[in-house]
Design goal:
The complex is a heterodimer of chains A (306) and B (717). With 306 residues, chain A is of the alpha/beta class. Helix content of chain A is 36%, strand content 30%. Chain A contains twelve helices and 14 strands. The longest helix of chain A has 18 residues. The two termini of chain A are 32 Å apart. In chain B, the strands form three sheets. Chain B has a five-stranded antiparallel beta sheet, covered by helices on one side. In chain B, strands 10-9-12-13-11 form a five-stranded antiparallel beta sheet, with helices on one face. Chain B is globular and about 105 Å long. In chain B, 42% of the residues are buried. Chains A and B meet through helix 2, strand 6 and helix 3 of A and helix 1 and helix 5 of B.
């Protein structure tokens, strides 16, 4: 399990000005579950991933993998593979060279699997990587990560530059790895929609701080979106008094609510309320986030939905 | 489960293999350089020297080959710089990944400890140079043996030089590692590394240049008795080169290597090598400690630590300003300039220093900021730098620290030397496989080796007057140039140039000139135990200015003994008088005797013992004035500035006697006689009756016979 406690990282910029890139972040990333790290550019995602992968050292707090510190600890680092947003490849190297290199770095690296994956994604093992497109390089770095056989894979701006088809294929690959060997991917993105269908839990970073971190299913279970046309204005007032409303919109007589309650609880509360129309709608991850963060006083649309 | 210890990158050979794949180009560069330098360069040098010596006796050809190989591959070579430069390139290649966040992400996330990365890369860099060096250099040695171009001492020298190359390479490499740790991008790291590697050299050159420009008693860079070393490798590669192959010790610069010479030459540069080694060690330790502390986010920054930014800016800005000042002084030749021109030059120089310091400081700020907008940033720092540079120049200009007035406390001086360039020079330089003991390149060299004056107050008395006269430097100041060198009890060596006025009290001079210590340090008939045997076989002749006599070999010891006895009456007045003749020992064909040089001994009136030996050996000639009957004719010529020349030949014995009486023969020269009043435009050529050769001389300004003035219609000077 990857665990962070009160993780803080500050950078000195322009002489004496100090920017807090990661501010008091505490997280627990459970094994064999996909964790998504969402936030705008500059929210601190990359810095957090760099600290998790041992590239950077935190100024304060701690980060552990299986209760062992990560920074300058080869034992811990051997359990993870970091795919940064901009991966480094040897200037004259080809995918085969990278594979051979990683084979020396990670004793769990599976060359056969790597070659098979290269073939599946139509990447020539002998072609110079410098001739690859941005998307191909991204594919290659993800394939290297999956072939490394580490328990944790940390991916920054995971699907940036990948076309929808490849993006989907990559997601299936992750799913297979999770099932087959209990891989724990940690994905970061500035766009929630990009990773919402793959993550089991999500952390929302804003200005270095963790706005919220939760299991998606838990969030979905405790939050409902309902559309309702009340029989009278008085009925509306009575119903609203019973509900813990997170958001409310109305168009004419049609009211749309996001409420904090289970489906059964919500349906039960409306049984005694005269309505012309009542329906419980599926709630997207985006809507859950809007509701949760607006409740905390943030406009999520400005943060991650661009 | 994963295990970091089992991955091959965590083994030494595994890491080296991986690193080698990434640094193949650097290995190729090292191999190329070493191939060009060792086998290719040496063979080309040998081919060249064979062509030059084509037709010479075989022994000379072989000696030339030994000399060529020794000066090309040995410690007298200038080729330490490439080793330092390769060290810099290697350091930047090995730790260049620290400058890129993309590479930091790649390398730092891998399961290898920082310690292993550092040492793995460090050792790899060394192996990249050392392996080819010892393979290529080592293989070149038997090839040279096969070509009869190497002797035992030469082999030892080449191996020593290989070890020195390693030291300079590693030190340059370590300095670069340190530079890389305090910087965050490649060009800045490269700049800082080159700057650091040559920092002491730059500053010492500027300092010496300012001393030379402003201090009249400064003895001149290449006359300094002390040897300058720096601490950084690039600087010491320059200093070392000057010490063993440069202008300071010219006579040793081209000869086959022999153990004695190797010991002597290496003795000069050994402290420099030790300094370089220690600098490398300190930089390595500091570099490793900084590496451990280095934050990944430092990648891309120009300089990681704020105090380092200020230091670099200050040092480079000041050096640039002062350097431009040196350039301006050089162009306007400020040291020989006087009056109004000198003041104008000072103003121009101050302006140049300000501009240079400002420009470089501002450019450094631009580099720090990685933007042209940095040009006017931290202006207060730039102002301080400009002010400091001008202030430093002014401290030299006004001799704030009293360089020209320096007089040591007598109690703090261990011994002193009061040396001067003698009128008649001597030298003794063994070549080939000869022992170096007793050798000296000039009488000045002999004095530096042997003079140890302990009557310090007497030396200081003379030096004070000499310094004051040199600082006054008026046109009517008449005196002879000398140098005083104080060997302080604390190990310091301090030298000053002097202009000892002829008006100085004789007793002051005699306090030194009459002392045994002075004579033993000035006349080569002393400290001659190692030379005596060789000198016995040299040709000897006696000259009185208008004729000469050659004598038999085997006279040296007898003459030296008599000469030493006569020197008991030598004093300043003797030194200021014209000798009646000179004894000259010289190796008629230096190479055949494996030694070159000549020993010249002036014979003064009253040197009875010497004269007696000369007479006994049938070498004696009466003073010139008494040899008129031996002279066939005398030609006196006038060479006017306006191209008007005149010449007259005299055969009349009366006129010849008159000419000889007033003439100062070129062959005869007193150490301290005045030469300011010589009419150099009037030349005298004397032709003896026996047609054994010709002799030359001049008149003094107010001592030209009237018939000469009339005959040649000499203008007054």
């Amino acid at each position: 399990m990857i665990e962070t406690m009160h993780l803080t990282k500050k950078f000195r910029v322009e002489g004496k000005r100090v920017v807090t890139a990661v501010n008091d972040v505490s997280l627990k990333l459970e094994d064999a579950k996909v964790f998504g790290l969402v936030g705008t550019n500059g929210a601190g995602k990359s810095t957090l991933l760099r600290i998790l992968s041992g590239v950077m050292k935190q100024d304060d707090g701690m980060v552990c993998i299986d209760r062992e510190p990560v920074y300058d600890n080869p034992e811990s680092k051997a359990k993870l593979f970091f795919v940064p947003s901009d991966s480094y490849f040897f200037s004259t190297g080809c995918p085969m060279d990278m594979g051979v290199y990683y084979q020396c770095v990670y004793d769990t690296f599976d060359m056969q699997k790597y070659l098979k994956l290269l073939k599946s994604f139509n990447l020539d093992p002998e072609r110079r990587i410098s001739e690859f497109s941005k998307g191909m390089k991204k594919q290659l770095s993800i394939l290297l990560a999956l072939s490394a056989g580490t328990r944790y894979v940390l991916l920054d701006e995971t699907f940036d530059g990948l076309d929808p088809l490849v993006r989907q294929a990559m997601k299936s690959l992750f799913a297979n790895e999770i099932v087959s060997r209990g891989l724990t991917p940690v994905l970061s993105s500035h766009n929630l929609r990009e990773i919402e269908d793959i993550c089991d839990s999500i952390g929302l970073l804003h200005q270095g701080g963790l706005l919220l971190s939760s299991d998606i299913e838990d969030m979905k279970l405790g939050m409902q979106k309902i559309q309702v046309v009340f029989a009278s204005e008085e009925d509306r007032k009575n119903a609203e008094a019973m509900l813990h409303i997170l958001t409310h919109e109305s168009r004419g007589r049609l009211h749309t609510y996001t409420v904090s309650a289970s489906r059964e609880e919500t349906e039960q509360k409306f049984r005694g309320v005269p309505t012309v129309f009542f329906e419980v709608l599926p709630l997207s991850l985006e809507e859950i986030f809007i509701s949760e963060t607006e409740a905390s006083g943030y406009d999520i649309r400005k943060i991650i939905l661009n | 489960m994963t295990s970091a210890k089992s991955s091959s990158i965590n083994t030494f050979s595994g890491m080296q293999k991986l690193l080698f794949k990434r640094s193949f180009w650097l290995a190729a560069l090292n191999v190329l350089y070493l191939l060009l330098y060792y086998p290719a360069g040496t063979i080309l040098q040998l081919v060249r020297i064979d062509m030059i010596n084509d037709g010479q006796p075989l022994a000379e050809q072989l000696e030339a080959r030994l000399s060529e190989v020794s000066t090309w591959l040995g410690i007298r070579t200038a080729f330490l710089f490439p080793a330092v430069l390769l060290g810099i390139i290697t350091g930047l290649q090995a730790f260049g990944y620290l400058f890129s966040m993309v590479k930091m992400d790649f390398y730092q996330s891998q399961p290898v400890s920082g310690r292993k990365v550092f040492f793995g890369k460090f050792v790899h860099g060394i192996l990249l140079f050392e392996l080819p060096l010892f393979v290529i250099g080592g293989l070149t040695i038997p090839v040279l043996y096969f070509m009869h171009s190497l002797n035992g001492a030469g082999t030892l020298e080449i191996l020593l030089q290989m070890a020195r190359m390693s030291v300079y390479f590693i030190s340059g490499y370590c300095v670069t590692i340190f530079a890389a740790m305090v910087t965050g991008n490649l060009p800045v790291a490269a700049g800082v590394s080159v700057f650091l590697n040559s920092l002491d050299f730059i500053f010492l050159k500027i300092l010496l240049s300012y001393e030379q420009q402003f201090f009249k008693t400064f003895v001149g860079i290449y006359d300094l008795p002390k040897r300058y070393y720096g601490i950084f490798p690039l600087g010491n590669a320059f200093f070392g080169s000057e010490l063993v192959s440069g202008r300071q010790f010219m006579s040793d610069s081209y000869s086959p290597m022999r153990l004695q010479l190797l010991g002597t030459l290496y003795g000069r540069i050994f402290p420099a090598d030790i300094a370089v080694l220690l600098t490398g060690l300190v930089c390595f330790i500091a570099g490793y400690r900084l590496f451990k502390k280095r934050k990944a986010e430092s990648a891309g920054k120009s300089v990681v630590y704020a105090p380092v930014r200020v230091c670099i800016k200050f040092i480079a800005g000041t050096a640039a300003g002062l350097g431009i000042g040196t350039l301006i002084f050089g162009i306007f030749n400020v040291s020989s300039d006087a009056g109004k021109n000198r003041n104008s030059t000072m103003l121009i120089a101050a302006g140049g220093i300000l501009c240079g310091a400002f420009l470089v400081s501002s450019l450094i700020e631009c580099i720090y900021e990685q933007s042209i907008r940095g040009f006017f940033k931290s202006l207060w720092q730039t102002t301080v730098i400009c002010a400091a540079a001008v202030l430093i120049m002014l401290t030299f200009r006004h001799d704030v620290f009293g360089y020209d007035r320096f007089v040591p406390e007598a109690s703090k001086v261990a011994y002193a030397q009061l040396t001067h360039y003698p009128a008649l020079d001597s030298s003794y330089s063994p070549a080939g496989t000869q022992d170096l003991k007793g050798s000296f390149n000039s009488l000045m060299d002999f004095q530096r080796q042997n003079m140890k004056l302990t009557n310090i107050p007497a030396v200081i008395d003379i030096a004070k007057e000499g310094q004051a006269a040199l600082v006054r430097a008026t046109d009517d100041e008449s005196g002879f140039s000398a140098q005083v060198t104080y060997y302080m009890k604390n190990g310091r060596v301090i030298s000053r140039n002097l202009l000892i006025p002829y008006s100085i009290q004789a007793k002051k001079l005699d306090a030194v000139w009459k002392s045994e210590e002075f004579k033993e340090g000035f006349f080569p008939v002393y400290h001659d135990a190692e030379r005596a045997q060789q000198l016995e076989s040299w040709d000897v002749q006696y000259l009185n200015g208008v004729t000469r006599k050659k004598g038999p070999q085997g006279l040296y010891r007898k003459i030296a003994q008599a000469y030493r006895e006569d020197l008991s009456q030598y004093n300043a007045a003797t030194a200021m008088s014209l000798p009646i003749g000179v004894i000259r020992f010289d190796a008629s064909w230096p190479m055949s005797k494996n030694v070159s040089g000549e020993i010249v001994l002036p014979v003064y009136t009253g040197f009875r013992n010497t004269v007696a030996v000369l007479k006994k050996a049938d070498l004696w000639l009466d003073p010139a004035a008494d040899c008129v009957d031996l002279i066939g004719k005398v030609t006196v010529s006038y060479y006017g500035d306006d191209g008007q020349n005149a010449s007259r030949t005299y055969t009349d014995s009366g006129k010849i006697e008159e000419i000889i009486k007033h003439m100062k023969p070129d062959d005869l020269d007193g150490d301290l006689i005045m030469t300011d009043d010589i009419r150099w435009d009037v030349a005298i050529d004397i032709f003896p009756k026996d047609e054994s050769g010709s002799y030359t001389g001049n008149f003094r300004k107010d001592d030209i016979p009237s018939f000469i003035v009339n005959d040649l219609q000499l203008p007054e000077e």
